[in-house]
Protein backbone atom coordinates (compact mmCIF):
# COMPACT_ATOMS: atom_id res chain seq x y z
CA UNK A 1 0.00 0.00 0.00
CA UNK A 2 1.30 3.48 -0.89
CA UNK A 3 1.20 6.27 1.75
CA UNK A 4 -0.98 8.31 -0.67
CA UNK A 5 -3.59 5.53 -0.42
CA UNK A 6 -4.46 6.88 3.04
CA UNK A 7 -5.25 10.36 1.70
CA UNK A 8 -8.97 10.91 0.97
CA UNK A 9 -9.39 10.98 -2.82
CA UNK A 10 -10.45 14.66 -3.13
CA UNK A 11 -7.22 15.77 -1.44
CA UNK A 12 -4.58 13.64 -3.21
CA UNK A 13 -3.76 15.98 -6.09
CA UNK A 14 -3.57 19.07 -3.88
CA UNK A 15 -1.39 17.30 -1.30
CA UNK A 16 1.01 16.26 -4.09
CA UNK A 17 0.92 19.82 -5.46
CA UNK A 18 1.92 21.13 -2.02
CA UNK A 19 4.83 18.69 -1.85
CA UNK A 20 6.08 19.99 -5.22
CA UNK A 21 5.71 23.58 -3.98
CA UNK A 22 7.73 22.77 -0.83
CA UNK A 23 10.42 21.09 -2.93
CA UNK A 24 10.84 24.37 -4.79
CA UNK A 25 11.43 26.32 -1.57
CA UNK A 26 14.46 26.78 0.69
CA UNK A 27 15.56 29.03 3.56
CA UNK A 28 12.01 28.93 4.83
CA UNK A 29 10.30 30.68 7.72
CA UNK A 30 7.46 28.47 8.97
CA UNK A 31 4.72 30.35 10.82
CA UNK A 32 1.13 30.08 12.04
CA UNK A 33 -1.17 32.78 13.38
CA UNK A 34 -0.24 35.04 16.31
CA UNK A 35 -0.98 33.71 19.77
CA UNK A 36 -0.80 30.18 18.39
CA UNK A 37 -3.23 27.53 19.51
CA UNK A 38 -2.67 23.76 19.25
CA UNK A 39 -3.51 23.66 15.56
CA UNK A 40 -1.15 26.49 14.62
CA UNK A 41 1.62 24.96 16.76
CA UNK A 42 0.91 21.40 15.56
CA UNK A 43 0.88 22.47 11.91
CA UNK A 44 4.14 24.38 12.30
CA UNK A 45 5.69 21.37 14.06
CA UNK A 46 4.50 18.99 11.34
CA UNK A 47 5.94 21.32 8.70
CA UNK A 48 9.28 21.28 10.50
CA UNK A 49 9.40 17.49 10.36
CA UNK A 50 8.43 17.44 6.69
CA UNK A 51 10.97 20.11 5.69
CA UNK A 52 13.74 18.41 7.66
CA UNK A 53 13.03 15.14 5.84
CA UNK A 54 13.27 17.09 2.57
CA UNK A 55 16.69 18.44 3.57
CA UNK A 56 15.50 22.06 3.65
CA UNK A 57 16.90 24.92 5.69
CA UNK A 58 14.06 26.25 7.81
CA UNK A 59 13.22 28.09 11.01
CA UNK A 60 10.05 28.00 13.08
CA UNK A 61 8.48 31.31 14.05
CA UNK A 62 5.62 32.10 16.42
CA UNK A 63 4.64 35.55 17.69
CA UNK A 64 4.79 36.21 20.59
CA UNK A 65 5.82 32.60 21.35
CA UNK A 66 4.02 29.37 22.18
CA UNK A 67 1.62 29.49 25.13
CA UNK A 68 2.91 27.97 28.33
CA UNK A 69 0.35 25.16 28.25
CA UNK A 70 2.10 23.90 25.10
CA UNK A 71 5.54 24.14 26.67
CA UNK A 72 5.66 20.35 27.03
CA UNK A 73 5.23 19.77 23.32
CA UNK A 74 8.28 18.37 21.47
CA UNK A 75 8.75 20.95 18.70
CA UNK A 76 11.19 19.82 15.98
CA UNK A 77 13.35 22.97 16.27
CA UNK A 78 13.73 26.16 18.26
CA UNK A 79 10.66 28.38 17.96
CA UNK A 80 11.85 31.91 17.21
CA UNK A 81 9.78 34.73 18.65
CA UNK A 82 11.54 37.47 16.69
CA UNK A 83 12.87 37.84 13.16
CA UNK A 84 15.48 40.42 14.20
CA UNK A 85 18.30 37.85 14.28
CA UNK A 86 17.49 34.91 12.04
CA UNK A 87 19.90 32.00 11.54
CA UNK A 88 19.77 32.64 7.77
CA UNK A 89 18.31 35.22 5.41
CA UNK A 90 14.79 33.94 4.69
CA UNK A 91 13.80 33.51 1.04
CA UNK A 92 10.48 31.76 1.52
CA UNK A 93 7.66 31.45 4.04
CA UNK A 94 5.30 28.57 4.74
CA UNK A 95 2.18 30.14 6.27
CA UNK A 96 -0.10 27.79 8.19
CA UNK A 97 -3.50 28.04 9.88
CA UNK A 98 -3.67 31.73 9.04
CA UNK A 99 -5.68 33.41 6.30
CA UNK A 100 -4.46 36.98 6.47
CA UNK A 101 -1.07 38.72 6.78
CA UNK A 102 -2.28 40.84 9.73
CA UNK A 103 -2.57 37.68 11.83
CA UNK A 104 1.01 36.52 11.25
CA UNK A 105 2.55 39.11 13.56
CA UNK A 106 3.94 42.48 12.47
CA UNK A 107 7.52 41.34 11.78
CA UNK A 108 6.58 38.60 9.37
CA UNK A 109 3.78 40.67 7.81
CA UNK A 110 6.35 43.37 7.01
CA UNK A 111 8.81 40.87 5.50
CA UNK A 112 6.18 39.04 3.45
CA UNK A 113 6.40 41.07 0.22
CA UNK A 114 10.05 39.99 -0.12
CA UNK A 115 9.35 36.26 0.33
CA UNK A 116 8.02 33.49 -1.89
CA UNK A 117 5.14 32.01 0.04
CA UNK A 118 3.02 28.90 0.32
CA UNK A 119 -0.19 29.05 2.37
CA UNK A 120 -2.01 26.03 3.82
CA UNK A 121 -5.11 26.82 5.84
CA UNK A 122 -8.72 26.00 6.71
CA UNK A 123 -10.17 29.39 7.67
CA UNK A 124 -13.15 30.85 5.85
CA UNK A 125 -12.88 34.10 4.00
CA UNK A 126 -9.97 33.97 1.58
CA UNK A 127 -8.31 32.00 -1.21
CA UNK A 128 -4.91 32.14 0.41
CA UNK A 129 -1.97 34.53 0.43
CA UNK A 130 0.69 32.26 -1.08
CA UNK A 131 2.63 33.55 -4.08
CA UNK A 132 3.89 30.03 -4.95
CA UNK A 133 0.80 28.10 -3.96
CA UNK A 134 -2.29 27.93 -1.79
CA UNK A 135 -4.26 25.09 -0.30
CA UNK A 136 -7.26 26.40 1.61
CA UNK A 137 -9.81 23.77 2.57
CA UNK A 138 -12.56 25.26 4.73
CA UNK A 139 -14.12 21.80 5.26
CA UNK A 140 -10.91 20.56 6.90
CA UNK A 141 -11.25 20.34 10.67
CA UNK A 142 -7.70 21.52 11.25
CA UNK A 143 -4.73 22.75 9.25
CA UNK A 144 -2.83 19.87 10.85
CA UNK A 145 -5.20 17.50 9.00
CA UNK A 146 -3.97 18.98 5.72
CA UNK A 147 -0.35 18.76 6.92
CA UNK A 148 -0.91 15.05 7.55
CA UNK A 149 -1.93 14.61 3.91
CA UNK A 150 1.11 16.62 2.76
CA UNK A 151 3.34 14.33 4.85
CA UNK A 152 1.69 11.25 3.33
CA UNK A 153 2.10 12.71 -0.16
CA UNK A 154 5.79 13.18 0.66
CA UNK A 155 6.00 9.48 1.59
CA UNK A 156 6.59 10.17 5.27
CA UNK A 157 5.04 7.82 7.84
CA UNK A 158 2.88 9.57 10.45
CA UNK A 159 4.82 8.14 13.37
CA UNK A 160 6.63 9.60 16.39
CA UNK A 161 6.66 13.37 16.82
CA UNK A 162 5.24 13.99 13.34
CA UNK A 163 2.16 11.93 14.23
CA UNK A 164 1.95 13.74 17.57
CA UNK A 165 2.06 17.14 15.81
CA UNK A 166 -0.91 16.18 13.65
CA UNK A 167 -2.74 14.85 16.71
CA UNK A 168 -2.18 18.15 18.57
CA UNK A 169 -3.89 20.10 15.80
CA UNK A 170 -6.75 17.61 15.44
CA UNK A 171 -7.43 17.41 19.18
CA UNK A 172 -7.42 21.19 19.52
CA UNK A 173 -9.61 22.18 16.60
CA UNK A 174 -12.17 19.39 17.00
CA UNK A 175 -12.47 20.00 20.76
CA UNK A 176 -11.28 16.46 21.44
CA UNK A 177 -13.17 14.94 18.49
CA UNK A 178 -16.50 16.43 19.62
CA UNK A 179 -17.17 19.49 17.43
CA UNK A 180 -19.26 19.33 14.28
CA UNK A 181 -16.08 19.33 12.17
CA UNK A 182 -15.20 15.81 13.40
CA UNK A 183 -15.72 14.18 10.02
CA UNK A 184 -15.23 10.57 9.03
CA UNK A 185 -11.94 11.68 7.43
CA UNK A 186 -10.80 13.15 10.76
CA UNK A 187 -11.64 9.95 12.64
CA UNK A 188 -9.94 7.84 9.94
CA UNK A 189 -6.82 9.97 10.29
CA UNK A 190 -6.96 9.72 14.09
CA UNK A 191 -7.31 5.95 13.78
CA UNK A 192 -4.29 5.90 11.47
CA UNK A 193 -2.28 7.93 14.01
CA UNK A 194 -3.19 5.62 16.89
CA UNK A 195 -2.39 2.55 14.79
CA UNK A 196 1.02 4.12 14.20
CA UNK A 197 1.76 4.51 17.90
CA UNK A 198 0.35 7.95 18.73
CA UNK A 199 -0.72 8.21 22.38
CA UNK A 200 -3.71 10.55 22.12
CA UNK A 201 -4.48 10.06 25.80
CA UNK A 202 -0.99 11.26 26.76
CA UNK A 203 -1.47 14.43 24.75
CA UNK A 204 -4.89 15.00 26.29
CA UNK A 205 -3.49 14.45 29.79
CA UNK A 206 -0.64 16.92 29.21
CA UNK A 207 -2.97 19.57 27.80
CA UNK A 208 -5.88 19.24 30.23
CA UNK A 209 -4.43 18.32 33.58
CA UNK A 210 -1.70 20.87 34.07
CA UNK A 211 -3.60 23.89 35.38
CA UNK A 212 -1.89 26.60 37.41
CA UNK A 213 -3.65 27.70 40.59
CA UNK A 214 -4.04 31.11 38.92
CA UNK A 215 -6.04 29.59 36.09
CA UNK A 216 -8.19 27.62 38.50
CA UNK A 217 -8.99 30.75 40.54
CA UNK A 218 -9.70 32.80 37.44
CA UNK A 219 -12.17 30.24 36.09
CA UNK A 220 -13.86 30.10 39.48
CA UNK A 221 -14.39 33.85 39.51
CA UNK A 222 -15.54 33.98 35.91
CA UNK A 223 -18.03 31.14 36.44
CA UNK A 224 -19.62 33.32 39.13
CA UNK A 225 -19.61 36.42 36.98
CA UNK A 226 -20.96 35.02 33.71
CA UNK A 227 -24.43 36.21 32.73
CA UNK A 228 -27.03 35.30 30.16
CA UNK A 229 -28.37 38.08 27.94
CA UNK A 230 -30.90 38.54 25.17
CA UNK A 231 -33.60 36.23 26.61
CA UNK A 232 -31.02 33.69 27.70
CA UNK A 233 -29.61 33.23 24.21
CA UNK A 234 -26.19 34.80 24.80
CA UNK A 235 -23.78 33.57 27.46
CA UNK A 236 -21.50 36.50 28.20
CA UNK A 237 -18.44 37.09 30.36
CA UNK A 238 -16.13 40.13 30.38
CA UNK A 239 -12.57 39.75 31.71
CA UNK A 240 -10.46 42.73 32.73
CA UNK A 241 -6.70 43.00 33.05
CA UNK A 242 -7.31 43.44 36.78
CA UNK A 243 -9.04 40.03 36.89
CA UNK A 244 -5.96 38.38 35.41
CA UNK A 245 -3.64 40.29 37.73
CA UNK A 246 -5.70 39.49 40.84
CA UNK A 247 -5.59 35.78 40.10
CA UNK A 248 -1.99 35.84 38.88
CA UNK A 249 -3.29 34.31 35.68
CA UNK A 250 -2.18 34.77 32.08
CA UNK A 251 -4.45 35.56 29.18
CA UNK A 252 -3.72 32.10 27.78
CA UNK A 253 -5.39 30.74 30.94
CA UNK A 254 -8.69 31.76 29.33
CA UNK A 255 -8.24 29.19 26.57
CA UNK A 256 -11.34 26.97 26.69
CA UNK A 257 -13.43 29.22 28.92
CA UNK A 258 -15.72 30.42 26.13
CA UNK A 259 -16.70 26.79 25.52
CA UNK A 260 -17.87 26.64 29.15
CA UNK A 261 -20.24 29.54 28.49
CA UNK A 262 -21.92 27.55 25.78
CA UNK A 263 -22.84 24.83 28.25
CA UNK A 264 -25.64 26.90 29.80
CA UNK A 265 -29.09 25.69 28.83
CA UNK A 266 -30.66 27.85 26.12
CA UNK A 267 -27.44 29.66 25.19
CA UNK A 268 -27.01 29.92 21.43
CA UNK A 269 -23.93 32.13 21.35
CA UNK A 270 -21.15 32.14 23.92
CA UNK A 271 -19.21 35.40 24.04
CA UNK A 272 -16.03 36.01 25.99
CA UNK A 273 -14.61 39.52 26.03
CA UNK A 274 -11.09 40.15 27.26
CA UNK A 275 -9.51 43.51 27.94
CA UNK A 276 -6.18 43.58 26.11
CA UNK A 277 -5.29 47.17 26.97
CA UNK A 278 -7.45 50.02 28.35
CA UNK A 279 -9.03 50.79 24.97
CA UNK A 280 -8.70 47.47 23.17
CA UNK A 281 -10.65 44.26 23.75
CA UNK A 282 -10.50 40.83 22.14
CA UNK A 283 -13.66 38.77 21.78
CA UNK A 284 -14.21 35.05 21.24
CA UNK A 285 -17.52 33.66 20.00
CA UNK A 286 -18.76 30.07 19.96
CA UNK A 287 -22.01 28.57 18.71
CA UNK A 288 -23.53 25.25 17.85
CA UNK A 289 -25.14 23.94 14.67
CA UNK A 290 -26.65 26.48 12.32
CA UNK A 291 -25.72 29.69 14.17
CA UNK A 292 -23.01 31.48 12.19
CA UNK A 293 -20.73 33.33 14.62
CA UNK A 294 -18.21 34.06 11.88
CA UNK A 295 -20.72 36.45 10.32
CA UNK A 296 -21.12 38.17 13.71
CA UNK A 297 -17.34 38.46 14.10
CA UNK A 298 -17.01 39.72 10.52
CA UNK A 299 -19.56 42.49 11.31
CA UNK A 300 -16.97 43.71 13.81
CA UNK A 301 -13.88 43.27 11.59
CA UNK A 302 -12.99 39.76 12.83
CA UNK A 303 -13.23 36.29 11.34
CA UNK A 304 -12.72 32.57 11.96
CA UNK A 305 -15.04 29.61 11.46
CA UNK A 306 -18.82 29.10 11.34
CA UNK A 307 -19.06 27.95 14.98
CA UNK A 308 -15.87 29.53 16.39
CA UNK A 309 -14.75 33.05 15.61
CA UNK A 310 -13.10 36.08 17.12
CA UNK A 311 -12.02 39.65 16.65
CA UNK A 312 -11.03 42.92 18.25
CA UNK A 313 -12.96 45.97 19.40
CA UNK A 314 -11.13 49.26 19.94
CA UNK A 315 -13.24 50.28 22.90
CA UNK A 316 -12.95 50.18 26.68
CA UNK A 317 -14.24 46.96 28.24
CA UNK A 318 -17.68 48.18 29.29
CA UNK A 319 -18.48 49.84 25.94
CA UNK A 320 -17.03 46.89 24.03
CA UNK A 321 -19.34 44.56 25.98
CA UNK A 322 -22.39 46.63 25.06
CA UNK A 323 -21.37 46.77 21.41
CA UNK A 324 -20.59 43.06 21.25
CA UNK A 325 -23.97 42.10 22.76
CA UNK A 326 -25.80 44.51 20.47
CA UNK A 327 -24.11 43.09 17.37
CA UNK A 328 -24.75 39.47 18.35
CA UNK A 329 -28.40 40.22 19.14
CA UNK A 330 -28.87 41.83 15.72
CA UNK A 331 -27.74 38.68 13.96
CA UNK A 332 -29.65 36.38 16.30
CA UNK A 333 -32.80 38.35 15.51
CA UNK A 334 -32.10 37.94 11.80
CA UNK A 335 -31.49 41.63 11.23
CA UNK A 336 -28.72 42.79 8.88
CA UNK A 337 -25.89 44.80 10.42
CA UNK A 338 -26.44 48.52 10.25
CA UNK A 339 -24.50 51.00 8.18
CA UNK A 340 -22.52 53.08 8.99
CA UNK A 341 -20.18 51.08 11.17
CA UNK A 342 -20.49 51.56 14.90
CA UNK A 343 -17.45 52.92 16.74
CA UNK A 344 -14.74 50.39 17.48
CA UNK A 345 -15.34 48.23 14.43
CA UNK A 346 -14.70 48.27 10.72
CA UNK A 347 -12.18 50.91 9.70
CA UNK A 348 -10.70 50.80 13.16
CA UNK A 349 -9.53 47.23 12.65
CA UNK A 350 -6.64 46.25 14.82
CA UNK A 351 -3.07 46.20 13.60
CA UNK A 352 -0.79 43.18 13.89
CA UNK A 353 0.98 44.76 16.84
CA UNK A 354 -2.17 45.07 18.90
CA UNK A 355 -2.48 41.39 19.65
CA UNK A 356 1.15 40.67 20.30
CA UNK A 357 2.22 43.86 22.04
CA UNK A 358 -0.60 44.18 24.50
CA UNK A 359 0.42 41.95 27.35
CA UNK A 360 0.18 38.34 26.37
CA UNK A 361 2.33 36.54 28.87
CA UNK A 362 3.80 39.75 30.18
CA UNK A 363 2.38 40.41 33.63
CA UNK A 364 4.02 43.83 33.69
CA UNK A 365 1.13 44.96 31.51
CA UNK A 366 -1.42 44.03 34.14
CA UNK A 367 -1.93 47.40 35.68
CA UNK A 368 -5.28 48.83 34.73
CA UNK A 369 -8.82 47.98 33.95
P1 LIG B 1 -10.43 32.27 19.41
O1 LIG B 1 -11.77 32.71 19.86
O2 LIG B 1 -10.11 30.90 19.93
O3 LIG B 1 -9.34 33.27 19.65
O4 LIG B 1 -10.52 32.13 17.83
C1 LIG B 1 -11.54 31.40 17.21
C2 LIG B 1 -11.35 31.42 15.71
O5 LIG B 1 -11.48 32.76 15.24
C3 LIG B 1 -9.97 30.96 15.25
O6 LIG B 1 -10.11 30.29 14.03
C4 LIG B 1 -9.20 32.24 15.06
O7 LIG B 1 -8.20 32.10 14.10
C5 LIG B 1 -10.30 33.20 14.61
N1 LIG B 1 -10.01 34.56 15.07
C6 LIG B 1 -9.84 34.97 16.34
N2 LIG B 1 -9.60 36.29 16.38
C7 LIG B 1 -9.62 36.74 15.10
C8 LIG B 1 -9.42 38.04 14.49
O8 LIG B 1 -9.17 39.04 15.14
N3 LIG B 1 -9.51 38.07 13.13
C9 LIG B 1 -9.79 36.97 12.37
N4 LIG B 1 -9.87 37.09 11.05
N5 LIG B 1 -9.96 35.74 12.93
C10 LIG B 1 -9.88 35.62 14.26
MN1 LIG C 1 -6.95 25.78 12.94
UniProtKB/TrEMBL annotation:
Record-annotated DDH domain positions: 27-152
Protein origin, superkingdom: Bacteria
Biased composition (Polar residues): 358-369
Domain DHHA1: 252-326
Span list, region Disordered: 335-369
Any Pfam family the entry gives: DHHA1
Stored PANTHER family: BIFUNCTIONAL OLIGORIBONUCLEASE AND PAP PHOSPHATASE NRNA
Identification of the protein by name: Bifunctional oligoribonuclease/PAP phosphatase NrnA
Organism in which the protein naturally occurs: Desulfovibrio falkowii
Amino acid sequence: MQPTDFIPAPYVQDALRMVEALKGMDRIVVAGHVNPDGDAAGSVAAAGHILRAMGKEFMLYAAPGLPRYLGFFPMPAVVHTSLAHTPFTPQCALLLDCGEPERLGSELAALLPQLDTVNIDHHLGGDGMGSLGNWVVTEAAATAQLMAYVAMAADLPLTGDLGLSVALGLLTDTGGFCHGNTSADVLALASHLVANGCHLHWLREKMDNDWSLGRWRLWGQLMERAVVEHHGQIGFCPVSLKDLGRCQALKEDLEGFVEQLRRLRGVKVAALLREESPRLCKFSLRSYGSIDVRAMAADMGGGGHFNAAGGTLRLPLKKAGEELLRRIALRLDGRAPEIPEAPGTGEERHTPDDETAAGNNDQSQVTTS
